[in-house]
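Example 3.
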Amino acid sequence: MNLILCSLCLLMVSSSLMAGSKVIATGGATTVEGNSGGGIVPWATINGYSSSDEWSLNTFASRVGVDDFTLESLGFGASFNNQWELSFARQNFALDSIGGELRQDIIGIKYKIAGELLYTSLPQLSIGAQWKKNRDFALPAAVGAKDDSGYELYLAASKVFFDAIAGRNLLLNATIRSTDAHQTGLLGFGGAGVERKLMFESSAVLLLNYNLALGTEFKQKPNQLGFADEQHWRDLFAAWFINKNASVVLGYVDLGDIAGLTEQTGFYLSVEGTW
Amino acid sequence: MVKYLLFVTTLALAACQHSPETTLYQRLGGETGVENIVDGVLSGIEQDPSIVHHFADTDIPRFRRLLIEQFCELAGGPCRYTGASMQESHTGFQITQAHFDALVNHLISAMQQQKVSIEAQNEFLAMLAPMYKDVVYR
């Protein structure tokens, strides 16, 4: 974590490192699950700045601190042709007041199927898959999860509307995710009476200029584990795309009730480097 | 918290809103502004090895004049574009998305250099972005 932060600090003071041709901010930020998007919702955007026939790499570190829990995510990814995105993320969810931790690895792939975020009237459409694997399964098993791994599929549509509000550009995103995960997989997958469900997620982001954006997100959650209610997630964030090599996102998150502890709200910080 | 943020944002945006009585052409800086933007784009192209080869056989003074005409007309200025359609003038050049992105970056830099307001930049980009389909992979 410290190493990544230090390297990102170095990135911020340099400005002419290798980067792809895409326009700044069009690679989005990186979610806590490692794919391009906002903070909690994957978008149809492809991470980094690789345009046609170009490669890009990215790495990120994020921390969500709410009343009784802390989620740290670290990861890296690669993108090609503004079409393919591969990602890996390792999550560590610390149960600050209960004690212990829940760790999970996530491998993701995303493929742009149609549209161009900036240039076509059709929104950019991408499909994605994530494979999630718990590294701690004792607690999820004890509260009723059947599997320590699971997959999710999603379809995302994203579009930038130029000159939309007060002369600013607006990004709108809608995502549909198929999942049987509990608390995004941190509490395992499946179980008695648990079905695969389709969840809706959305984001709206106002680009104040080329480098600064304000956004909000909503993530519907399935709530299928009997022992404690799971609630939808929401956030508000400000993103600073310093240059094509570094970005920082600061947010306020509302994760609802988690494992019986109510009203989990707090702050979110994410730093990302792209090459 | 949420209400406060929305309030601050609304105030900030309202403060920057442009007055509607000026045309986009005026807000791009009129004749001088558009000429400077076009010159900025041309200089960006000249220094960009990824796209400069597309202009190897281009009559640059003519290209400059047509681009000024086109920008001026699009922005509501007193000009008429006399060149070929976007589709005609780009067919066969094997222009990729990366080339198009590069040109957009040069245009943005040129407008930033010219101190064009973000509202006017976005209004202009909104007019140019749909040309993608007539320019790329033709």
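Residues 2-274 of chain A form a domain with the Porin fold (CATH 2.40.160.40). The first helix of chain A runs from residue 2 to 13.
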